Structures
1.
Amino acid sequence: MTPFGSLARAMLKGFFRDRMALFFSILFPLMFLVLFGGIFTDQGASKAEIIQVGPVAVLDDVPKDARAYVDESLDITRSSDLAAAVVKVRKGDADAVISQDGDTLSVRFSQADQVKAGQVQGTFAAIVQSANLAVTGQAPKFSLTTARVEDKSLSTIQFFTPGLLGWAIASGATFGAAANLVVWRRNGLLRRLRLAPIPTSAVVLARVAVSIAIALVQAVIFLAVGMVLFGLKLTGSWPMIVPLLVAGTLAFMSIGLLAGSIAKTEEAAIGMANFVVLPMAFLSGSFFPLDGAPRWISAVGTVLPLKHLNDGMLDTMVRGEGPAAALLPVAFLLVFAVVVSAIASRVFRWDD
Amino acid sequence: MGVGITADGLVMAYDDVRAVDGVSFTVAPGEFFGLLGPNGAGKTTTLEMIEGLRKPQSGSVRIDGHEPWRREPELQRRMGVQLQSSSFFDRLTAREQLDTFGALYRVAAGRTDEMLEQFGLVDKADLRTEDLSGGQKQRLSIACALIHDPDVVFLDEPTAALDPQARRNLWDVLRTINDSGRTVVLTTHYMDEAEALCDRVAIMDAGRILELDTPAALVRGLDAPVRISLAPGTLSLEDARAVAGADEVAAGESALTITTRDPSRVLTELASRDALDGLSVKGASLEDVFLELTGREYRA
Ligand SMILES: Nc1ncnc2c1ncn2[C@@H]1O[C@H](COP(=O)(O)OP(=O)(O)OP(=O)(O)O)[C@@H](O)[C@H]1O
Ligand SMILES: [Mg+2]
């Protein structure tokens, strides 16, 4: 086996035998995926639970064509006890109580779940309106059709899989490089390798290859879990995540190398890496979209490598853009990697 | 095969100490050379400059004509190095460490088993290095240094942490290596080790070489008296004092000790009196030379 190959193999074995590293670079981000996937899938699919007290004309005599709409969004149970029904809503066991008093329809809801509250109010406003229209006997003048601009298959999982994957790759590459550098410097292995008849580049390239391999494993596991558990669907140019992932790994490795060169202990290196990666993940929209965020946040984002990685992956993986959408992010990440590596090589030490 | 080494006026100063302060010596091809000295004497620093880990602040090192700090692969392939603190790849087994180091020197895979065998680590081959005992780690570290059959070997306190068996076994290994014409340079605190192994010894203290010679010449140069002990009661104190050549006589609980600078005369006389019960003769050792040169104070 070549020196490069044997170093890479030694590093890979070291990684896969390190339970903590495995947990934090693979299982931990995956927990977020499952958590987010679980939360948002449930919310999108569930119906509002309605308790109907007494007869309600607009619900009981819904015209045939509107019946389907009502069944799709409301889950109606009947009760004769108004007070008990209101208590249930207050406790969160039901979303609203509906009753009719003369010609007035009354909806009692809880604001605790804002999404459900909006859904219930909107649905009943529409029902009342169409009932009013039906009473006038006129044919509706305007009609409404809706269509999503994204791929038809788009569900919430599509939005955060790329962001969470970006965060996972960023932490994996940063922590891997930082910890590796500090540990090997402290136990003297760097010095020992320096006396072996191999170029320094063989050591660096072996670490790069290992980090890229780890990023690929992360991506495969992420996409598999997203697809199997949550119905993630990839769009046409998704293979572009490979160059994105390689460039991203290089960019974050360079941050890790810088942290590992400055830090004296493994704890300090990990603290430093955390200090950089975690805020960056928030500012780059890894955990939630930044559409409503103030302008300065998106301004900061334009210089953050993770933002470019996330955007590139979002565009090619789920937004259905062509492969060209990955070019700018890849270029940015590579330039970032070169600049930060150059700084890291200036503060690099073989021993402490 | 053997490689010659020249160190000339080596200096390495840190903020407040001159760790190495003008060290010069040569090691002939095939020589077994020892660096001896108390803690902090500058042995490791000297060795690191010779290996090429540190560039001397002034002075120069040549190994077979190469300047080691340039890290030329042709030279590095011929050098085997064991550093003072063993350094291994994290979470690899003993066998995997040897395989990995072997691959760095492009050694055929079979060498790993030879080394495990030679260093008594066959039973521990599949244990991770984190789980090895201190002495086992030390043996593995030396095995990793020797895996590519180097022409010149640098060992920094190779027998620290070894039990007596392992120490003697390592001596045998090192003697075999040296007998086949390879150059060996080691540092040690153990005088018996230097006496048993080294062709020449440099005694260092405070960054300088105090003496450099063969162990025998160093001991001779000390001109220390020989102590001859007998079982108590073999000879009366007065009779012992009367022995020709005896400088000093002391009667202890367990032995009667005669100190002399003319041991052959004293021994002949004792033999003629048939007074040789429990005889033991102790000459000066390298340890005496060492203490004489470096004093008994603790070092930094
Ligand atoms: N990186 C460093 N910075 C400052 N001082 C150092 C450094 N390395 C070594 N020294 C000092 O240089 C002196 C020589 O150290 P060195 O390690 O060469 O001693 P040594 O003879 O190998 O000792 P030992 O027998 O304990 O291994 C010591 O006083 C040590 O404190
Ligand atoms: Mg030392």
Note: The longest helix of chain A spans residues 156-186.
2.
Amino acid sequence: MTVLRLLLWLCVVLVLWEGALRLVPGSLLVSSPLAIAGYVSNNAALLARAALETSVNAAQGFVWGNLAAIGLGTIMIVFPRSARTLSAVCLLVFCVPLIASGPILRVLFGPGTGPQIALAALAVYYTTLLTLLVGLRAVSQTWTDLMRVYGRGPMSTLIRARARASLPYLFVGLQISAPAALLGAMIGEFTGAERGLGVLTLRAMRGLDTNATWALALIAALIAMIAYGSIGWLGQRVVAYRPVILLSAPAVSVRQRPWKYLLEIGFTTAFVLILWQVSMDALDLNRFFAKRPGDVWAFLAEAQNRNTVLSALAETLSFAVPGYLAGLALGAALAALVVLSPALNRATMPVAVALRAVPIITTAPLLVLAFGRGLVGTMVVVAVMIFFPTFVACQQGLRQTPGQVVDLFRSYDAGRWHLLRAAQIPAMLPAFFASARMAVPAALLAITTVEWLATGKGIGVLMATTASTSNYNMLWSCVVILAVVAVVVYAAVAAVEHRVLRIYANEQV
Amino acid sequence: MASVDIHCDSITKRFGGTEVVIPFSVTLAAGQTTALVGPSGCGKSTILRMIAGLDTPDSGTVALGAEPPRTVARNGALAMAFQDPSLLPWRSARANIALGAELARKPVGDVDALIDLVGLGGFADHRPGELSGGMRQRVAIARSLISEPDVLLLDEPFGAVDAMTRRRLNEDLPPLWRSRGATVVLVTHSVQQAVLLSDRVLVLSPRPARVVADIPIALTGTRDSKLVQTAEFAALSKEIFAVLEDSI
Ligand SMILES: Nc1ncnc2c1ncn2[C@@H]1O[C@H](COP(=O)(O)OP(=O)(O)OP(=O)(O)O)[C@@H](O)[C@H]1O
Ligand SMILES: [Mg+2]
């Protein structure tokens, strides 16, 4: 039934789309459905090969990334003392934009499929880890008591209770990570692969081939939606219910003493630096391209280098910050507006859920085509990248308003606007801030990707050119700087979140 | 079957600023059933948890036989039915009951006989979500019985069970653990159930818990619903009620 209705809608959209382009001919920016179909049928074999290549890489990365997530989650549960440091390191790794780790992996792995697979894995492990941990920790005290009555320890609870209890959560994580894996693989292909949808996208962009760009974006979206849908279907078969999950790392607890907090940051930083140095040394990687912390330090110590990196960063941030704020504001505002009209709310919910299946970065080339390579185009890409997840999260958050509270307002015949202001928006805030935090790495990914692909500005292009000039010191320095920026902004958002939630959502802090 | 007695030697427990248990000493003879009765919130569950080794006393010791509770637990000789059933929602009733044997590292015996005994015939393959509150509680009781423990701790086991079923369980279950020589501690709010099922009733004061009466139940004859009508039974019940009322 719903499938039929969806198909009907699809037909209507296609006809309108085609019709509109017939009325306004000569548009360079938008292709008509027939033109796209024509491109696809003329290049069917090429596109099929590329799609297969990308899907296989994405699938491999999906498996590795999720296995890593399951392993990490298990370690954090069995050794709770390791959890804080491990999750800080995971967050740090997650904060490095894929487009920044891409060139480094390319240098380390060479021209094969390694970087694509590694990036796909990097794109998925964190979201799966977060959802899985929620599930693994959602074990009631009475179950642990039950195990202990029989003299059984944490392992028994893990095997008999936690593993099974976390399964619904794991499936949510797997489902969300399917489009992410495709995105990771495509970004890996942007950084210099030989085959795949990403390579074709790059070529289409450079050749200003509108039909090809559209066709590739639609194919990528289709693959992602199929993967998303089939994992969802599988999940429904295996576990009956779907938990509602706010996708975010647990808010930083600021309740502890400041010096302890600083100590923890110092400890994590030292841990990462040592890991970096030791892993490079242990694998005996060539110092020419596998730079160590000391090399980056020495490079950035020179004023000229530092100025190059920092001015590129300033340029990048001047685009990214407005885009980030616009995306967040629009996402939250639209969710709040939509909730005012129950009919609209019901109608947009499935659309919002479907949008989770689309790796939004694949639309970046289209947006650049439509809005140009300047300030507007760049900002729009960043904003769109953040808008959709924020909208979905806020809509979910609004639904978390306790039923009794809504009933209370109804019993006084209070207006919808009043209800929204006094009850629903406060209830939405935790979800809003969760997505604001997760949007920090997303915004950096979006901006560096457009810079790399299209605009030729900022730190993204600095990385793109250093890869060809073999200035690996510059490349590594850019990556380090981006990671530091991401973590600092993330922490700043978390601090604001803490202050606001302490007032509006006391029980959540 | 090993018979294990329970020694509590001046155990105390406080949560934050509130004393819940003040020096509490008692020896429960092996193979006997002891009921703990007392007002809500007086510390019965806390005492039971300390006997199970789930909570450690702030001072004093608990010994089951000559061993600390954790050792007995590791040998699979301990079982407890909690105040709330705490079943695993993805397991059927049968599998939840079998879990008791699994965790105690004992062969899973005749689950179906036990299922019939607690009156869940026909519901063996239902998940907890498809059972009523009272049915879930009976699954939890069966789970505690399947491992044939030497020490059995029951925290208000029949709280949510309807009156008719409770009456039947009161008659059918005790012979099971008595025949195995298990030492049983039963927390209950029902004075009648305490008298009917046990060899000894300890009446506790409001928090902090203190034994205000230690009443042996020396009833002859089979313990069934006919016993309730005897004068002996009525006298004992009355005595316990009187102590309970005095202590409040
Ligand atoms: N983990 C805990 N933290 C703080 N206080 C607790 C804790 N566990 C129990 N208490 C307090 O200890 C007191 C005794 O609790 P306990 O559960 O032992 O009572 P009880 O006699 O079993 O009551 P009921 O008959 O209602 O089950 C209560 O006042 C309770 O508030
Ligand atoms: Mg209790």
Note: Residues 163-179 of chain B form the longest helix (17 residues).
